Amino acid sequence: MPRHARIVAAGFPMHAILRGIDRTAIFFADADRLAFLDALAGLAASESVRVHAYVLMTNHVHLLMTPESERGPSLLMKGLGQRYVQHVNRAYRRSGTLFEGRFRSSVIEADSYLLACQRYIELNPVRAHMVHAPGDYPWSSYRCNALGGADPVVAAHPLYLALAETEEARRSTYRDLFADEIPEDALVALRDATNGGFALGSPRFLRQIAAMIGRRTWPGKSGRPKKEPPDASQLDLPL
């Protein structure tokens, strides 16, 4: 069965997950994580992709990024696969690939989901019981977004910048967001859209992206696909 083309829309944020083969480890030492981040920063700049949030887990990576072109995410991920796998193969005297063949992704509606997605990404180590608080984990964008740490990977999204007028007030407001749990329906929507390769947002947003790329951007049902996306209640997305 042929694979569906990835949904990518220039100028719209995308949540992406890159996993190790069979969910095996992709990072073995801090030097590996530093090498990955160095490659990510360089490729994000060269491919004109702005990375708003990330987390490096033991066997997978989450990215929240906005590409300036439709080819940007694929070129960035391809470059990461080449550069980082070369680093690992040299360092550990191994051969072959390291990642799953395709990364999983979802174009998301910024107004509804961008800040929730940033929190979802930066809270991964807490949900995995690796740390008690997101700031305790050194391999995510939280220390940059919430604490003001320097990070050459991170480029702030306009919605993050709009949280407050000054940097300190912005970071404080952002930290306050973590006091509330992300609603379960939002978590499910983020996971399902990313794993399924669909767009995530309001019915109007889904239609907008569908018109841009020329095909359906929402999950279909068995049988003949509908020509229009269902209403919000049928999409099982938070209002």
Q: Residue share in helices?
A: 40-55%
Describe the global form: globular
> What amount of the residues lies in strands?
5-15%
Counting DSSP H or I runs of 4 or more residues, the number of helices is 10
The SS-based structural class is: alpha+beta
Question: Helix and strand succession?
Answer: EHEEHEHHHHHHHH
Distance linking N and C termini: 34 Å
Query: Which blocks of ≥5 consecutive residues have pLDDT under 50?
Result: 229-239
Rg over C-alpha atoms, rounded to the nearest angstrom: 18 Å
Strand order of the largest sheet: 2-3-1-4
Report on this model:
The chain is α+β, with helices and mostly antiparallel strands. The chain has ten helices and four strands; from the N terminus they run βαββαβαααααααα. Strands 2-3-1-4 form a four-stranded antiparallel β-sheet, with helices on both faces. Helix 1 runs antiparallel to helix 2 (72-92).
